[in-house]
């Protein structure tokens, strides 16, 4: 049993959002009590005590869209010259990198991403995986890394026709096998959806097979990320992407439409009507120069919009700051999104996770996953329940996450990892990455 206490507690729960000096008690992986430090320590006197020393006590962060395998792209520019368009970037870097991955690469790239997530205070991730030359068993390798690292993740394999019918069939089978495994295992740290790459690399015949194989699991798919995806869909299929996916039964409350940069008003309405969630990835959208995502407009229409990193980084505080600046800049409105952008990360990502995991997470409430971080932050102005998001937007950042607890286990304390050997994992990754880049 563990108690994390002696600091302001931000619960992200509407009933009691803020305790000026509080503590969280965790037993068997779940939160059992939240209250004033003195009271909780008295009640759970025998528990181990993690002293926040006045730092902020906050739920573990959730990343709404990640690609663990992107670890091996770091510092590697690809081959074949610079890309003029987003599609060229996919062809010259990502679709060559993922083809070079072996099962061990899938495990180690995910394990390294888990190390970085722990150091950034991120305890739950929704991942989208691709390794077209090592499809079978790949999600099980990624899952092993997540569980070995002590975190929680919702996984899927991105089915695509870009590597031929055999790879597409293997992708469908891998999603199905992993969905069945998660349902049978009862492991609360794992969840599954059915993954699809994007409309532009999926034929009608493949979509039909995916719809049948993934029924009930929800679909995790890139939607209208670059302008080409939307244009090609209208040219080839005579309708928009969201409408196309809707016709195949791929929308709904368990489905994630990632990016939605180029969706039109009718598509936005269809996303809202079907309860399909959207994940906004500001750094990726800016970095790939694909356009400005109408994230606030989608929220106003009632779409659940979460926040992700799209594999760029593991730092959700960085995504928060970029999303906030991007929306204000893109809308030319210095007032835009002050409340909505923090809501994407601190509220909506928890609601997203609730759609997939059996154990609720992202709030400091009894019964929820014992995922807690301590942010070593001494505010220079008064901090209250009303302005905490303003502090987190401009204040500490991920580098000041001093402790990370997931499912009640202390994974980082005083910024030292307790479970994973970062140097050893990084060294093995460098060996593997060298070989990946040679095969590239
Ligand atoms: Zn992505």
Architecture blueprint of SSEs:
Elements: E1 2-10, E2 18-27, E3 30-36, H1 37-43, E4 48-51, E5 56-59, E6 61-66, H2 86-97, H3 103-119, E7 122-127, H4 138-149, E8 152-155, H5 165-185, E9 190-192, E10 194-198, H6 204-213, E11 219-223, H7 227-237, H8 241-247, E12 256-259, H9 265-274, E13 277-280, H10 282-287, H11 295-300, E14 305-307, H12 316-331, H13 340-354, E15 372-375, H14 388-394, E16 401-406, E17 409-413, E18 416-417, H15 422-439
Parallel strand pairs: 1-4, 6-7, 7-8, 8-9, 10-11, 11-12, 12-13, 13-14
Antiparallel strand pairs: 1-2, 2-3, 5-15, 15-16, 16-17, 17-18
Residues 65, 67, 128, 222, 258, 310 line the site of zinc ion.
How does this model look, in words?
There is one protein chain. The chain is an alpha/beta fold and 440 residues long. It has two domains: 2-60 and 361-417, Urease, subunit C, domain 1; 61-354, Metal-dependent hydrolases (TIM Barrel), CATH 3.20.20. The protein has 15 helices and 18 strands. It has helices at residues 37-43, 86-97, 103-119, 138-149, 165-185, 204-213, 227-237, 241-247, 265-274, 282-287, 295-300, 316-331, 340-354, 388-394, 422-439, and strands spanning 2-10, 18-27, 30-36, 48-51, 56-59, 61-66, 122-127, 152-155, 190-192, 194-198, 219-223, 256-259, 277-280, 305-307, 372-375, 401-406, 409-413, 416-417. A five-stranded antiparallel sheet has the order 5-15-16-17-18, with helices on one face. Strands 10-11-12-13-14 form a five-stranded parallel sheet. Strands 3-2-1-4 form a four-stranded mixed sheet. β12 (256-259), α9 (265-274) and β13 form a beta-alpha-beta unit. α3 (103-119) runs parallel beside α4 (138-149). The longest helix has 21 residues, at 165-185. The structure holds zinc ion. The site of zinc ion has 6 residues, from loops.
């Amino acid at each position: 049993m563990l108690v994390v206490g002696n600091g302001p507690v931000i619960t992200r729960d509407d009933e009691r959002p803020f305790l000026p000096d509080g503590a969280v008690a965790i037993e068997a992986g779940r939160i059992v009590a939240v209250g004033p430090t003195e009271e909780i320590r008295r009640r759970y006197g025998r528990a181990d005590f993690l002293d926040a020393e006045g730092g902020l006590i906050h739920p573990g962060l959730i990343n709404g869209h990640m690609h663990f395998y992107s670890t091996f792209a770091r510092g590697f520019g690809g081959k074949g010259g610079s890309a003029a368009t987003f599609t060229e970037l996919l062809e010259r870097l990502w679709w060559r990198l993922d083809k070079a991955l072996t099962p061990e690469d899938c495990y180690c790239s995910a394990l390294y991403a888990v190390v970085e997530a722990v150091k950034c205070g991120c305890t739950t991730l929704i991942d989208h995986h691709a390794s077209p030359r090592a499809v079978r068993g790949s999600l099980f390798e990624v899952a092993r890394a997540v569980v070995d690292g002590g975190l929680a993740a919702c996984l899927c394999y991105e089915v695509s026709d870009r590597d031929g019918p055999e790879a597409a069939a293997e992708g469908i089978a891998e999603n199905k096998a992993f969905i069945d495994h998660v349902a049978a295992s009862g492991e609360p740290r794992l969840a599954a959806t059915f993954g699809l790459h994007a409309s532009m690399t999926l034929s009608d015949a493949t979509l039909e097979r995916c719809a049948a194989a993934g029924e009930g699991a929800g679909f995790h798919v890139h939607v209208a990320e670059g302008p080409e995806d939307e244009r090609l869909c209208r040219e080839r299929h005579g309708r928009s992407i969201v409408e196309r996916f809707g016709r195949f039964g791929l929308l709904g409350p368990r489905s994630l439409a990632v990016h939605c940069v180029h969706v039109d008003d009718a598509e936005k309405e269809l996303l809202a009507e079907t309860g399909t969630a959207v994940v906004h990835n500001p750094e990726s959208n800016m970095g790939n120069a694909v356009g400005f995502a109408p994230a606030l407009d989608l929220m106003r229409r009632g779409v659940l919009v979460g926040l992700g990193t799209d594999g760029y980084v593991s730092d959700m505080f960085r995504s928060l700051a970029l999303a906030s600046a991007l929306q204000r800049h893109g809308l030319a409105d210095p007032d835009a999104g002050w409340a909505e952008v923090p809501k994407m990360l601190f509220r909506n990502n928890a609601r997203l996770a609730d759609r997939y995991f059996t154990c609720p997470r992202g709030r400091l409430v009894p019964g929820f996953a014992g995922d807690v971080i301590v942010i070593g932050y001494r505010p220079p102005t008064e901090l209250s329940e009303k302005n905490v998001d303003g502090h987190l937007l401009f204040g500490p950042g991920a580098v000041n996450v001093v402790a990370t607890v997931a499912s009640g286990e202390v994974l980082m304390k005083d910024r030292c990892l307790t479970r994973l050997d970062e140097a050893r994992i990084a060294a093995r990754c460098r060996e593997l990455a060298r070989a990946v880049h040679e095969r590239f």
